[in-house]
Fold these 2 entries.
Entry 1:
Amino acid sequence: MTRRLTLQRITPLNHSVFHLVFDRPEGLAFTPGQAVDMALDRDGWRETRHPFTFTSLPSEEAAEFVIKTYPEDAEGHEGMTARIARMQPGDAVLVEDPWGAIKDEGDGLFLAGGAGVTPFIAVLRDKLARAGTLEGNTLIFSNETEQDIFLKAFFEDMPGLRTRFIVTQDKDSALYHPRIDSALLKDYLQPDRDTCYVCGPDAMLEDMSDLLRERGVPADRIVTEDFD
């Protein structure tokens, strides 16, 4: 079912990531971690859809998203996110029924690459609302540069959540680490206990799933989603 959402406000989180708040039409139900296929409600764009994850909770009145935008000619994005960055209150989008593989399946390790962190926002918010703490959960958030990191203070301020931020392209940064590797995981992963959540580009999903299995995490405790 297609629904129309009207933008209430848009706020930049860094040079390319925006927080968008829409009205929430009656009947739009979802679970934390789910996404929708979204299109711009404007001529020439209603058939161009891309997936974006709810960052609001099911109990909240608004439908919120955190969206990473790309230059107009970025391959695979067809200029849609560049137009999202220029949206104004009153503009509208069209969304289909929610979907997604990521949901809360227990405490553990969250591995995110870039915009792949967005499903974890609602999952962690929901866990915190229910338990009052995120003790026993760790987020490792990888970006290319420090300027690409978003919501750092938001995650750091979540009670009980252990965080590690890395950047892979800036060797002069104190956060530099070329990739999430076995040496990094050994300081955070408890393979006999953790459910491991992975979201990011295709290559990251494959690498992290293989690496987690090598470190003893069974396949049924590895939860993945592809938002490349």
Note: The helical segments are 80-84, 118-131, 152-156, 182-185, 202-214.
Entry 2:
Amino acid sequence: MWGGTVEDYLSEKEQWEWLKAQVRENAPAVVLALLVVAAGVFGWRWWQGRLDAGRLEAGARYTQILQALDRGDRTRAITLLGELERDFGKSPYADQARLLAARVYVDSGELERAAGELANVAERSKDRDLALVARLRLARVQIAQGKPDGALATLGVVEPGAFAARFHEVRGDADYAKGDRAAALKEYRSAQAGAAGDSLLALKIADLTADTAAPAPAQAASTTAKSTASGAGR
């Protein structure tokens, strides 16, 4: 039969000799391939071990930060935060640490520094949910800085996903800060649709609804005068 393999045309002895020749010729390539595979496996395990060690060290540093804050040692906490950002800047713990730093700065009235930390997480974090949380907090800081338009811009460049209700609420806060009560009320009501039972949100809506329902001072005075005149004529 035509088209067979080499083995089809050789005796057993010839096949054995042919196989030995193939091994001799290809042995260096086989050994090299095995070495490459072994090096790859070793390198991967070494890299994974290094990553695991880095995560453990970053986690330990983050725990130290929390402990320093619990003791009220702000100076030590800020120092550790800087070390964590420097040594493990790409670790998830670094993002968490930046959120902590922002809280510390807000508590001490350093809003610009807080905004910087939050913007870093909002723009660079690989954790989408954490980035959205940072964006919400950044918008609140911007409102506190008297920058409601900046807050609206911060909230307007991403899809909020599961945080839609909170995004509506903070947009409402920004609109309220701008003096746009109608827009604020609209945002608060949208937020309430996704966050039923939020007492603070309900209070905001109640306050704005009461303001809307109450007549303007001039209108109220006119109404009172007409009522008085009508009563006097009876």
Note: Residues 125 and 150 are 20 Å apart (CA to CA).
